[in-house]
Model the fold of this input.
Amino acid sequence: MVNSKQKRARPLPSADRRRTIIEAVIPLLLDKGPAVTSREMAEAAGIAEGTIFRVFPDKHSVIIEAVKYSVDPAEVCDALDRIPGSAPMDRQLEVAATILLERSIRVATLVGVLRSVHTATAAPPARARRFVTASNAAILSAITELFARHEHRLRVTPSRAAVAFRGFIFANAHPMVAPEERTTAREIVDLVLHGIIARDPRRGA
Done:
């Protein structure tokens, strides 16, 4: 007969438990915003409600961790690096724009949720500004490397092209831009590569 202790699943390490909770909670925060309850968070993570507060001190801390998780550049940088170099330049950039748009909109939404639940007594996350700055620098570096693949076709340096490209992404994800007004990934690529001036067939330009 199997001992009941042997049947019991081994508890997750603290870091893995935190990650599991955050990955389950992020879709809820994107869907429901600050209205999401701790009970809904627990149900999404498949745990008891009390377990959340053994891992995080309060709901505000869960949201802070969700923002931090989403700002972490590692997953995005890996995805950009995996874009096939054999694909046409515009296709590579369209895939990159899609990845970056999804990430930017997710982060902007979560930051909005965090601000809406912020209280006067809530302390800002330690080293938050430094973390965000480092994250943006890592992503900009990954975009620069993507443009560097096509440096022979550029009239500006890959780093300047990356700044322009990142600027379109960032502006498009701004919360003041209505979803129906947002530019698509393909439109962003077309604007970056070809600008907004119509070609004059009489001049061949």
